[in-house]
Design brief:
Helix content: 25-40%
CATH architecture of the largest domain: 3-Layer(aba) Sandwich
Distance between the termini: 59 Å
Number of domains: 3
Largest sheet: 6 strands, mixed
Strand content: 15-25%
CATH class of the largest domain: Alpha Beta
Radius of gyration: 30 Å
Structural class: alpha/beta
Length: about 500
């Protein structure tokens, strides 16, 4: 049995080489892999001895030779292939162990140049992988160190069957496909404006886990990641307690996580059906949780809680009496975990902050019949100095802080979104209504006695002054909205009549 080994990731390669060599295999290798194996006292043949040709062009050419690829590609079930190998004095290669240069790691370095990126595009490796995977009936191809142990055992027992070989070949083609996709995306977007979407997008996704069910129990569902392993956002979250997650759990947890990461101060969001029913920012995390819960205590039951801060023991004690489905945070104090893990049905997640970048992983994908809609995430960081007060009365300092809070909150609530807020706390919310004035009604009803003295944020302009009339009846003192309606003047006049301060942002934040 001849085994060709050429790997960048050398995890476990010594053990694999030792097992196969001890079992009677002839080892063939290149460069760094050759040194690693020989340092472990293994007898290894250099590729140059097989090809009769030295490595050249700084290692760009070393395995691209008929003596290598003829040995890999010959179909053992075709006598003419074997006869041709014999005439050419080429030995068959039975096992190919290859993984590729770290192109993704290279281009993610902040100082990576185009020349450095190009030097880390592997040529010989993908060629050998594809050749072996094409000929998987005759050649075993291994690209993942996780497969070394079981494959070695089966090879040494002459027990590697066709199903095993097909599995390894499929994994190999996926490995090369992901590699090529990364290069394609880099070359397509490197010099482009960040706001220009690539002409073509190739997605390679990997299943992380099966979910309990989809939106409804009769629907199957799974969690997939665009990068493998996933490292950021909800796809990269680690579950440290509780039963399996469902589709809806993850959707709501993602909504909570995105919302709290909009804020720099300690923030708590309580989400139901994709919208925050409770939200508060406060220097004291426990106070933020308490106010978020009190914002709509009825809806909070059975909700999803997210925070951008380490969960304290005090916050955990406050949460202890309420049933929640999921809690997601960047971390937990030991005392907090001790309390929370007593709640058998609470799923506890640890997540890393989602970076604000327009990358393949961060695009917003929406599935439609037969395709996708793709857009940049709504990551716009607005300059509040460019906002304009359009009414006679300017908002006071407290109102202005609440307007900024409410504006961020409205961005994460489904349109037509109306948010009531006071003391950096959500007091009322209306979402997903086809008529904006209905959302104002809903916000007023939820806020109840908390409405007077609140400010209001609207994710899009008010088409009619009736919204302002209703806001005034609720006790709203200041409003923030994009502006841009043909009836802006009527809306502003209504605000002036009721002594409501109004700020235009000139930016819309629809969330469908």
């Amino acid at each position: 049995m001849k085994v060709l080994l050429s790997v960048f990731d050398k995890s476990g390669i010594e053990n694999l080489g030792t097992r196969l060599f001890t079992g009677g295999a002839q080892l063939i290798s290149t460069g760094g892999t050759y040194k690693t194996l020989t340092d472990n006292k293994l007898d290894v043949t250099q590729v140059a001895e097989i090809t009769g040709f030295p490595e050249m062009l700084d290692g760009r050419v070393k395995t691209l030779h008929p003596n290598i690829h003829g040995g890999i590609l010959a179909n053992r079930n075709i006598p003419a292939h074997l006869e041709e190998l014999k005439q050419m004095k080429i030995d068959p290669i039975d096992v190919v162990v290859v993984n590729l240069y770290p192109f993704s790691d290279t281009i993610n370095k902040p100082d990576c140049s185009l020349d450095e990126a190009l030097e880390n595009i592997d040529i010989g490796g993908p060629t050998m992988i594809r050749a072996a995977a094409k000929n998987f009936k005759s050649v075993a191809v291994i690209v993942d160190p996780e497969d070394y142990d079981w494959v070695a055992t089966k090879l040494l027992n002459s027990d590697l069957n066709l199903t095993d070989r097909k599995f390894l070949a499929a994994k190999a083609f996926k490995h090369v496909s992901e590699y090529d996709r990364t290069i394609n995306l880099y070359l397509s977007t490197k010099d482009n404006d960040i706001e220009t979407l690539p002409q073509d997008i190739t997605l390679n996704v990997s299943k992380i886990e099966n979910l309990r069910y989809g939106e409804n129990p009769h629907q199957k569902a799974g969690l997939y990641a665009i990068t493998n392993p996933a490292s950021t956002g909800l796809a990269g979250a680690k579950q440290i307690h509780g039963k399996e997650l469902s589709f809806n759990n993850i959707m709501d947890a993602d909504a909570a996580w995105k919302t709290v990461n909009e804020f720099h101060e300690p923030t708590v969001s309580i989400v139901k059906h994709g919208n925050s029913c409770g939200l508060c920012t406060n220097q004291n995390l426990s106070e933020a949780y308490k106010r978020a819960f009190e914002g709509d205590a009825t809806s909070a039951f059975g909700g999803i809680v997210g925070t951008n801060s380490i969960v304290t023991t005090e916050m955990a004690e406050l949460m202890n009496e309420i049933f929640y489905e999921v809690l997601v945070a960047p971390g937990y104090e030991d005392g907090a975990l001790e309390i929370l893990q007593k709640k058998r049905n609470l799923r506890i997640l640890v997540a890393n902050h989602q970076p604000i970048t327009d990358t393949l992983e961060n695009y917003d994908y929406r599935v439609i019949t037969g395709g996708f809609l793709i857009q940049n995430q709504d990551f716009l960081i607005e300059d509040a100095t460019k906002w304009k007060t359009v009414t006679r009365r300017e908002p006071n300092e407290a109102e202005y802080e609440d307007l900024m809070f409410a504006w961020k909150a409205a961005k994460h609530i489904k349109s037509n979104a109306i948010v009531f807020a006071k003391d950096k706390t959500l007091t009322g919310m209306g979402a997903g209504q086809p008529n904006r004035v209905v959302s104002v009604h809903l916000s007023q009803r939820v806020a109840g006695l908390k409405a007077p003295g609140s400010v209001l944020a609207s994710d899009a302009f008010f088409p009619f002054p009736d919204n302002i009339e209703l806001a005034s009846e609720a006790g709203i003192t200041a409003i923030i909205q994009p502006g841009g309606s043909i009836r802006d003047e009527e809306v502003i006049n209504a605000a002036n009549q009721h002594n409501i301060a109004m700020v235009f942002t000139k930016t819309r934040h629809f969330k469908h």
